[in-house]
């Protein structure tokens, strides 16, 4: 049963005690956390919840590790050059690699950080994913003989061929993929159906092409680069086509593959964002729209990297969607919790699940603008100084459905809420926000279930039918959730200001919910008035000197030092 494991890198040394094989003490050194995490992943060892301060790491030994323990082996793994070499992950979204010129600029940007050894994650070029989805839809009804003429297929072909041409690269791998894509569309036309599984295979061509083109272009510039399809290197997912979850086995598999390739032959990895491999089906899956952000944070966690950079076409996470408020401005710092809430409640800037791996591994995420690299961007970390923070961002999620459910039974009856939620569970419908009293509950349903598909009227009718067995139900459609993300410790001030604005604009709030997360207050209003409300709230909180006004009130009240009225933002 005895064992000893020694891990050394960057002046950090770790050793597992013979007497206590389920925990591991280590002598700390610079970067020891990262080194150890990387080491464990590399060795396929699962680490339980860590207590780094006490220098004890509980290790959940899986069978392979236990086996090596029984042999009383001493495993010494010199990690010099593993944890230190690949340092950051840089993800570039579709807008950042939309054309040959953009690819050139991105390559230049990457090379302007010669001290970094980055893992690159790319999305499909520009609107390629949308075009592939439209091409698939057209194929279902166009007939086999017309499949080659689908307009969106030709847009995809033209964009990629033009890019190859302009970058002056060989591109033979892309010609093969474009042929394969056309065959696939003919197949869809023949079958007259497009299943979620085929949809994922279809859209995967976008990332497979963009990464091949970019890696080849880097090589043309004299930079060693290696292209990877995520489904070949250990991105193991659930089989929920179009919206798959990353499974735990992904982390050690990825670390092993990327590290060992690097050791044998160092070359910048260029990895397809957005896609994975279903663990049962072994078919290509996708992580939901915008899923390349999640690819990047998964790699950051797997390799224990120093930083995850997500390069977009805006100066970071903004105080509001710039398409709604042209005056939206960048937020310098956010916590993982704030960013996750913002993403979950509809901000398109980050994938809803993408903060999870970063938060779990405590790797900071930086959101930057590839069109304006000098802009500082947004830094997302575990904690930030909230004493000066009030409202961070306003997020709008439109076209949601709200249900008002009032129990038909008397006050004091137990089990009402349990019954309501079991109905949603049985029907597989996710609930967003909830406000409740003892005999009634109002809740909102996400119609798009995180973009994977629309809730159809039939499903809604069925929910209402089931709920009507125990309650009086009002189904309210065309509603919007306005989420106020910020310091909910200061909710009274936020709500006072918000309701003032809404009252002035003649808007009646139909539901309020303040989540346990303490970073989000959600207000439900009619779709028709939502954008106007968001603009008015943004103007009041971020544009009209509200904080100066608030400070004045405090000064008048003789409590100028109250943190409630400190300047907004980070
Ligand atoms: N709060 C917000 N902050 C920043 N961008 C936002 C916000 N809400 C919506 N957006 C939109 O998200 C876009 C960036 O996300 P996305 O299109 O996924 O970028 P990429 O394709 O480069 O990854 C921006 O162009 C902007 O229009
Ligand atoms: N190409 C995929 C994945 C992605 O992440 O894209 P982007 O980074 O451009 O949002 C999509 O359009 O959904």
UniProtKB/TrEMBL annotation:
InterPro entries, per the entry: AceGlu_kinase-like_sf, ACT-like_dom_sf, ACT_Aspartokinase, ACT_dom, AK-LysC-like, AK1_ACT_1, Asp/Glu/Uridylate_kinase, Asp_kinase
Keywords: Amino-acid biosynthesis, ATP-binding, Chloroplast, Kinase, Nucleotide-binding, Plastid, Repeat, Threonine biosynthesis, Transferase, Transit peptide
Gene3D superfamilies the UniProt entry points to: 3.30.70.260, Acetylglutamate kinase-like, Aspartokinase, catalytic domain
Reaction catalysis annotation: L-aspartate + ATP = 4-phospho-L-aspartate + ADP
GO molecular function annotation: aspartate kinase activity; ATP binding
GO cellular component term of the entry, any: cytosol
Pathway named in the protein's UniProt entry: Amino-acid biosynthesis; L-threonine biosynthesis; L-threonine from L-aspartate: step 1/5; Amino-acid biosynthesis; L-methionine biosynthesis via de novo pathway; L-homoserine from L-aspartate: step 1/3; Amino-acid biosynthesis; L-lysine biosynthesis via DAP pathway; (S)-tetrahydrodipicolinate from L-aspartate: step 1/4
CDD domains xref list: AAK_AK-LysC-like (cd04244), ACT_AK1-AT_1 (cd04933)
Subcellular compartments: Plastid, Chloroplast
Enzyme Commission number: 2.7.2.4
One GO term (biological process): threonine biosynthetic process
Highest rank taxon of the organism: Eukaryota
Domain ACT, chain residue ranges per copy: 405-483
Coiled coil: none
Pfam families, per database record: AA_kinase (PF00696), ACT_9 (PF22468)
General function of this protein: Involved in the first step of essential amino acids lysine, threonine, methionine and isoleucine synthesis via the aspartate-family pathway.
Family membership noted in the UniProt record: Belongs to the aspartokinase family.
Name of the molecule in the record: aspartate kinase
